[in-house]
Amino acid sequence: MQDFRELEYKLLNQHHQEYCAFTRLLLTITVACITIMAATSTTKNWYFTISFSLLFSSLLFGILVQHRIMMTPIYHLEDAQNKMNAALKNSSSGAIEIRRKPTKLEQWFYRSQMVCFVMAFFMLALYFVDKAI
């Protein structure tokens, strides 16, 4: 009998570990940028305000992506159970195929996290250039 980790590994696609690590990296960098901005915020201008709000948006979307990543194995195991029950009910002896693709919601959260982070990084650069001048 397979344990959960072996079954989960079979359900994951080959880039899943890199995807998880990259979204965690974005979350870490976002928190670091928020900390740097909070430490250097003596004067607040519109670069600061926009960058700060974009970083918080990126952080929110990153947390939502991580939630979806953590819940995906549960969803896939439920799907596998439903397909197995249907195959047993129909007396089918064929292989059960489970395709693992990110959901549209997960894709939207990921893209939103990326866009917010890139825009915030650009605004943060403008903020520090403006502050230096």
Q: How many helices?
A: 4
* Stretches with pLDDT under 50, minimum 5 residues: none
Q: Structural class of the helix and strand makeup?
A: mainly alpha
Rounded average pLDDT = 77
* Succession of helices and strands: HHHH
Number of domains: 1
- The backbone outline, from C-alpha atoms, is rod-shaped
By oligomeric state, this entry counts as single chain
Transmembrane segments: 21-40, 46-65, 108-129
Keywords: Membrane, Transmembrane, Transmembrane helix
Keywords:
mainly alpha, 133 residues, transmembrane helix
Outline the secondary-structure elements.
Elements: H1 4-11, H2 16-40, H3 46-89, H4 104-132
Helix pairs in contact: 2-3, 2-4, 3-4
Task: Give an overview of the whole structure.
This protein is mostly helical and 133 residues long. The protein has one domain (4-132). Helix content is 80%, strand content 0%. The chain has helices at 4-11, 16-40, 46-89, 104-132. α2 (16-40) packs antiparallel against α3, α2 (16-40) runs parallel beside α4 (104-132) and α3 (46-89) runs antiparallel to α4. The model has no long low-confidence stretch (mean pLDDT 77).
